[in-house]
Amino acid sequence: MARPTVSILMNCLNGARYLREALDSVFAQTYTDWEILFWDDASTDESAKIAKSYGRKLRYFRGLGGMPLGYSRNCGLEKARGEYLAFLDCDDVWLPTHLSTLDAMWPVPISYAQLLTASNPLLSSTLLFRTSLVRAHGGWNPTLRYAEMYDLCLRLKKSYAVMWQSRETVTIRRHPAQACGSGHAAVTLEVLKTMRPHRWQAGWRQVVREGLLWAKYGGQKLADSRTFN
Q1: What is the pairing mode between strands 128-130 and 163-164?
Q2: Under 8 Å CB-to-CB from 19, ≥6 apart: which residues?
Q3: Alpha-carbon Rg of the chain, whole angstroms?
Q4: Exposure of 70 by Cβ count < 10 A (0-12 exposed, 13-18 middle, 19+ buried)?
Q5: What is the mean pLDDT of residues 96-120?
Q6: Residues 51-80 pLDDT 10s
């Protein structure tokens, strides 16, 4: 089988509710030189059955379960054959032109410092990396459950430019069943852990942001304690 240009990594844990819509959006792409690497983190719902029904362009793999997302993404990276690596969360949707707009990109002024001083604007389902570049930089931190993509973006942006295309081609779904989000204390703590190796790189603005994140974490922990008491 010929190597595809784009390997699309989909990590799944009990994502059956929205999975068909996500997968259909890939198969509806006007750009067709791709493969899906579907890494199932031992789902107990219908995710496996749904994924396996999509034929040979979807390569299904089942993990051990309970592993951090950074670890699972690395497992998918090992299987990738494409020159580029794209991502689609199982509850998000690509518009049909998402992959066909890859040639219509230009550099944008998202700096390394900006990623350290403001919320990360680089959402997983919108990203595209050169596969060789991700491998050369060690892939994802296998201990991170929530901030693994932020960590990789920080490490890559320190040395490389970001390309951007202005058209909106992804629909990001927000719902209560999502495993992570800005309202979770564990996510905030992991973002702080991710920023630690980059400390002082963005000066006082980074210090301010870390202070605000620690305050946010404290508020989230307090809210959690009130919920369970």
Answers
A1: unpaired
A2: 12, 47, 50, 51, 90
A3: 18
A4: buried
A5: 79
A6: 999 999 999 999 999 999 999 999 999 999
User: What is the C-alpha separation between 177 and 109, in angstroms, rounded?
Assistant: 34
- Both tokens assigned to 210: 């870390």
Question: What's 198's DSSP letter?
Answer: G
Task: Specify whether the CB–CB gap between 92 and 9 falls below 8 A.
Answer: no
Calpha distance 163→190 (Å, rounded): 26
Residue type at 91 in one-letter notation: D
Provide the token pair at 159: 């040395």
Please check whether residue 153 is in contact with residue 87, taking contact to mean a CB–CB distance below 8 angstroms. Answer: no
Report the alpha-carbon distance of residue 46 to residue 38 in Å, rounded.
14
49 burial type by CB count under 10 A (0-12 exposed, 13-18 middle, 19+ buried): exposed
Task: Report how far residue 6's alpha carbon sits from residue 73's, in angstroms, rounded to the nearest whole number.
Answer: 16
**Residue indicated by tokens 């670890």:** 71
Segment 176-198 shows an average pLDDT of: 81
Q: State the distance between the two ends of the chain, measured CA to CA, in whole angstroms.
A: 57
Amino acid making up residue 212: L
Where b means 16+ CB within 10 Å and e means fewer, 108-132 reads eebebbebbbeebebebbbebbebe
Whose CA is closest to 91, among 194, 182, 12, 186? 12
